[in-house]
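in:
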């Protein structure tokens, strides 16, 4: 179907086509880029940070296109707005936590007997453990673990990832088991 014909289709018609047609997928995403842009500007006025936030919003929009279920009663525009907004808020929370951690780290005083070499060795050991963990977790386990570490509840993780609460619990059990082995 030529891309011009997509413009006359409703969101629901486009969503049905988007599963198998890249042009339909692109059309539905482009329809909602304005929503992403507006939300990003509501949260931030700094253009460089706004671009990062828009990227997060686009990821939320793409996730909405892939996971929308018309049988659940919400219109796509409402669902997309919620997905975009949630993704942006998560990114903002994460950024604020990182800034807060950086500020707290700046206040930490190192023991006088710790040399720069030992600090580097400790960091290398930590990096090795973190990469080992990352390589041993499945995609779902990584996603669940990251959200859990950001302070999400089991039900919040389930909602964010489109999983059952029991699936989140099982994924975290597997993560814990793998972490203990490391």
């Amino acid at each position: 179907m030529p891309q011009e014909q997509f413009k006359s289709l409703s969101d629901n018609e486009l969503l049905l086509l988007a599963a198998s047609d890249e042009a339909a997928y692109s059309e539905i995403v482009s329809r909602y880029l304005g929503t992403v842009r507006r939300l990003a500007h509501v949260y931030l006025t700094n253009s460089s940070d706004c671009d990062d936030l828009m990227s997060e919003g686009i990821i939320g929009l793409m996730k909405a296109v892939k996971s929308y279920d018309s049988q659940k009663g919400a219109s796509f525009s409402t669902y997309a707005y919620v997905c975009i907004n949630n993704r942006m808020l998560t990114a903002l929370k994460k950024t604020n936590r990182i800034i807060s951690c950086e500020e707290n780290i700046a206040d930490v005083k190192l023991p006088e007997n710790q040399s720069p070499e030992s600090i580097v060795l400790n960091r290398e050991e930590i990096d090795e453990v973190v990469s080992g963990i990352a390589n041993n977790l499945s995609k779902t386990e990584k996603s669940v673990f990251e959200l859990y570490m950001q302070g999400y509840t089991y039900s919040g993780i389930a909602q964010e990832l489109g999983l059952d609460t029991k699936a989140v619990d099982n994924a975290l059990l597997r993560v814990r088991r793998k972490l203990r082995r490391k």
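note: The two ends are 52 Å apart (CA to CA).
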